[in-house]
């Protein structure tokens, strides 16, 4: 444990700086890699680039983020979905070189914002994001992904499949059994064991596609796309103008994830190591991804869900997951086996992971004794929850403000604009005061 770190979270099984034994650490790290794998490789598949390069960039990006934050934040960075629609359009017109330039531009926006925050400080964060805003936003971060989890669990080629749903529920139930009925290390790796059980059942039912495993080479270098080496440099102003502003959207989601981690670890990462460092880490990760051929990266809710469930918050475990992501990007067979995990298995696990994130938002509300008898609190929470969970978004040309980002901004604005008391509440208080005064004088 770091000597400079005096605080120890009593709720954690392994706190941020604590290192697990090697054998246990390997399994805990693999569990995190399984949790993020499906989403991380799905982004490159959607835009038409190699999944192995996305694995490589996510692993390298996570380690860079840890370096920037002095290994104080247990976060994993994977492929960002916020850029998918724009990247798909750019791939059809100018190809990956345009995507790379847009990704680098988005990363530079992060770096510039981090420099600004370093100069002005982050004391404003707690003022614009009090518990009444933070709690509902964290609920939104978890529940906005609920539809994705449900679709993964139920749909086979966009059609309802009872077999798929059965596999998802079986995976969920097995994970719950390992979590609740076992103790010690078995309980800590309940997510990975649940995935293994779901995968075995999927193999028995014949819904696992092994064709990718057969084709994959044992060893292969990821398909790097490096500017000046893989392709000639050329300016793509349209890519820069469309992708760079999306960085402001992912920044709000990034801050939301930091809030969840603050709640889980009982720390304030906005102050130590500082929001400027977390922003810098995200920015550099995305810049590196653009330079080697990967998609932009962002912190992952799936891994935060694993942290919440297992209470293992060790940065060593997350660093191990990054190491395995890099390693498996070079081992084609292993990556293909993990890639063959059916979506209902991922969906079954996601029911638990995303719900756990939302539950932590409820915990913040309860712990801070937020009074929903006050109109102000009720109105702020109501707007955040419905916009965020409902999936409302703001579209301006090719620029889209996602439901999570929009609900966050709305929450901050309402917290700033709304008075401490509604006029009707003031009137009621005045009436009660007058009645007491009248009673006293009578």
Automatic annotation (TrEMBL):
InterPro entries: NCS2, Xan_ur_permease. Belongs to the nucleobase:cation symporter-2 (NCS2) (TC 2.A.40) family. Keywords: Membrane, Transmembrane, Transmembrane helix, Transport. It is found in: Membrane. The lineage of its organism: Bacteria, Bacillati, Bacillota, Bacilli, Lactobacillales. The chain crosses the membrane at residues 34-61, 73-91, 103-121, 128-150, 162-182, 189-213, 233-251, 315-338, 344-366, 378-395, 401-418. GO terms for molecular function: xanthine transmembrane transporter activity. It is a multi-pass membrane protein. The keyword Transport applies. Pfam families: Xan_ur_permease (PF00860). GO terms for cellular component: plasma membrane. This is Uracil permease.
């Amino acid at each position: 444990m770091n000597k400079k770190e005096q605080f120890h979270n009593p709720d954690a099984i392994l706190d941020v700086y604590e290192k697990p034994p090697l054998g246990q650490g390997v399994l805990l790290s693999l569990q995190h890699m399984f949790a993020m794998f499906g989403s991380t490789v799905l982004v490159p598949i959607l835009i038409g680039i190699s999944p192995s390069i996305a694995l490589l960039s996510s692993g390298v990006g996570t380690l860079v983020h840890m370096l920037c934050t002095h290994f104080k934040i247990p976060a994993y960075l994977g492929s960002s979905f916020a850029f998918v629609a724009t990247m798909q359009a750019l791939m059809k017109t100018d190809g990956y070189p345009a995507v790379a330039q847009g990704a680098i531009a988005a990363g530079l926006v992060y770096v510039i914002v981090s420099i600004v925050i370093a100069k002005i400080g982050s004391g404003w964060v707690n003022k614009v994001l009090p518990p009444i805003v933070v709690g509902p936003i964290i609920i939104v971060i978890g529940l906005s992904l609920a539809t994705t989890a449900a679709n993964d669990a139920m749909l086979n080629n966009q059609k309802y499949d009872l077999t798929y749903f059965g596999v998802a529920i079986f995976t969920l139930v097995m994970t719950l059994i390992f979590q609740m009925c076992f103790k010690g290390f078995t309980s800590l790796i309940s997510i990975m064991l649940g995935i293994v059980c779901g995968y075995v059942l999927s193999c028995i039912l014949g819904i696992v596609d092994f064709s990718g495993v057969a084709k994959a080479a044992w060893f292969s270098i990821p398909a790097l796309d490096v500017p000046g080496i893989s392709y000639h440099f050329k300016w793509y102003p349209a890519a820069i103008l469309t992708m760079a502003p999306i960085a402001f959207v992912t920044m709000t989601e990034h801050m939301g994830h930091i809030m969840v981690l603050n709640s889980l670890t009982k720390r304030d990462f906005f102050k130590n190591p500082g929001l400027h460092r977390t922003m810098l880490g995200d920015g550099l990760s995305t810049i590196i991804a653009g330079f080697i051929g990967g998609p932009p990266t962002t912190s992952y809710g799936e891994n935060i869900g694993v942290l919440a469930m297992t209470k293992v918050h060790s940065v060593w475990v997350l660093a191990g997951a990054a190491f395995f992501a890099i390693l498996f990007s070079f081992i084609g067979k292993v990556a293909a086996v993990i890639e063959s995990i059916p979506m209902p298995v991922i969906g079954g696990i996601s029911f638990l992971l995303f719900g756990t994130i939302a539950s932590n938002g409820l915990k913040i509300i309860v712990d801070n004794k937020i009074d929903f008898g006050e109109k102000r609190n009720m109105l702020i929470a109501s707007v955040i929850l419905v916009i965020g969970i409902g999936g409302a978004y703001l579209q301006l040309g090719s620029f889209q403000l996602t439901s999570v980002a929009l609900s966050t901004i709305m929450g901050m604005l309402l917290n700033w604009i709304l008075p401490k008391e509604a006029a009707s509440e003031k009137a009621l208080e005045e009436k009660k005061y007058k009645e007491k005064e009248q009673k006293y004088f009578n």
